[in-house]
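Hi support team,

I've been running sequence recovery on a batch of backbones for a student project. Most finish fine, but this one hangs at about 90% for roughly twenty minutes before it completes. I'm not sure whether the input is malformed or the queue is just slow. I've pasted the structure tokens below so you can try to reproduce it. Let me know if you need the job ID as well.

Thanks,
M.K.
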């Protein structure tokens, strides 16, 4: 359950729909090997509820994005402890080749620059993994050509980025952002093709 309140402790009860939902919930585990992007249902009086499954015990960080009726955008985060068997820790290592296959589609990621505190464009090129033919019929996912979440290895810096051209159908989708400081970041891109929601993770280093 998620309860939204103002600084005085009063329930926040009026929200704007952003990318087809009132609220976006991102869940990651301690080493960023687990990622989930889900959408709690509004129960009224500032209360949202959602059912989800945590794969292992341990620490998870929850990020909540929403916009109030008066156009105030908020991002809140909180660590939670989940009981159960603990999973091992996987150290994040930058990938030398930013190409990945997910469910028969090949995603290639390029960065206009990897310099921290500089404007950068993340460009995804999508192809059929077998024929290498470029895919030009991407579908809208939550009202856009795709969604990207960028998170620093220490979870200190969180960015939820939307496409430069939200109506793009491929073969490319570009996202403008900036790495706040030097370090390792994990990037999850989410796209929809022929009814399949595809989540594509990459690890990069900002220098």
């Amino acid at each position: 359950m998620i309860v939204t309140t103002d600084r005085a402790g009063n329930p926040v009860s009026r929200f704007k729909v952003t990318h087809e939902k009132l609220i976006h919930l991102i869940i990651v585990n301690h080493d960023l090997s687990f990622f989930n992007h889900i959408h709690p249902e509004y129960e009224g009086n500032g209360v949202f509820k959602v059912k989800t499954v945590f794969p292992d015990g341990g620490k998870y960080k929850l990020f909540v994005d929403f916009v109030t009726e008066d156009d105030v955008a908020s991002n809140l985060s909180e660590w939670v402890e989940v009981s159960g068997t603990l999973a091992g820790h996987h150290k994040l290592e930058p990938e030398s080749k930013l190409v990945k296959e997910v469910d028969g589609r090949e995603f290639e990621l390029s960065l206009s620059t990897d310099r921290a505190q500089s404007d950068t464009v993340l460009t995804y090129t999508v192809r059929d993994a077998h024929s290498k033919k470029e895919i030009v019929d991407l579908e809208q996912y939550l009202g856009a050509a795709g969604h990207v979440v960028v998170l620093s290895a220490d979870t200190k810096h969180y960015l939820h980025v939307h496409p430069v051209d939200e109506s793009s159908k491929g073969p490319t989708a570009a996202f403008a952002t900036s790495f706040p400081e030097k370090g390792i970041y994990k990037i999850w891109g989410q796209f929809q093709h022929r009814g399949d929601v595809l989540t594509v993770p990459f690890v990069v280093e900002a220098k």
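--
Follow-up from support: It reproduced on our side and the slowdown came from queue contention, not your input. The domain at 99-206 is CATH 2.60.40.10 (Immunoglobulin-like). No action needed from you.
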